[in-house]
Design a protein that fits this description.
Blueprint lengths: L2 E8 L8 E9 L3 H7 L9 H14 L2 E7 L1 H8 L7 H16 L3 E5 L5 H10 L7 E5 L6 H25 L10 H10 L12 H16 L2
Helix pairs in contact: 2-6, 4-5
């Protein structure tokens, strides 16, 4: 019996909300069950399909873990506090998942352009140094990683829905969206718990408001 873990994240880029990292542990003999479900990179699936697949994945998985990284913790890493950057922060959370779920093999979707450097850093954080570790870009081609991608994305979408219920229409949280742009412009100095203040888009909204104050003097 070989236990395989897939790890992926969702929500790395938005200015609003958390980053989610998910790990899905499956018995090697159940890989075909995942494949037959049609798991793939969550970005290639419609919202309703992601929700239904997430439920099925959880039934097949031996175990799974979801870690939520809130904006404040992201900001500390981006600003190089705690001796981290965003990639190293992800590595620490990924190691936490691996150390807790104790797979024989782990497949990681790599957030860093430098795969070797990231893999070496991650390995130093693991309890089991003998683990079979695969670190690749676009690792969603592996069923356990695709499954983790779906779990992470659904968790991210649930958070955004909760934010909307509390704060109003924020859009998806990405600056490519006009609703998010408008919400940030009007609310950048409110609700500090939902904004990533280390993002240039948040900083630009702050500077624009401060410039208008100066122009009014």
């Amino acid at each position: 019996m070989v236990n395989i873990l897939g790890v992926d994240e969702a929500g790395r880029g938005p200015v609003i909300g958390s980053l989610f990292i998910a790990g899905v542990l499956v018995d090697e003999k159940d890989l075909n069950k995942l494949k037959n479900l049609g798991v793939k990179d969550s970005k290639l699936l419609l919202h309703k399909k992601r929700i239904s697949l997430a439920k099925e994945v959880k039934k097949i998985a031996k175990s799974y873990k979801i870690i939520q990284i809130k904006p404040e913790e992201i900001d500390r890493a981006v600003n190089h506090q705690d001796g981290l950057n965003l990639n190293w922060l992800e590595a620490h959370k990924t190691a936490q998942i691996i150390n807790e779920l104790k797979p024989d093999k782990a497949i990681i979707d790599c957030p860093s352009p430098n795969i070797k450097k990231y893999k070496d850093y991650l390995l130093r954080l693991l309890d089991n140094k003998e683990i079979e570790l695969t670190v690749e870009h676009k690792a969603e081609k592996y069923a356990p990683v695709a499954a983790a991608s779906i779990i992470a994305k659904v968790s991210r979408e649930e958070e955004i829905e909760n934010i909307k219920k509390r704060y109003g229409e924020v859009g998806p949280g990405y600056m490519s969206n006009e609703t998010t742009q408008k919400f940030l412009k009007e609310n950048w100095d409110k609700h500090p718990e939902i904004f990533r203040k280390s993002w240039i888009s948040w900083d630009n909204a702050k500077k624009e408001k401060e410039q208008k104050k100066l122009d009014n003097y």
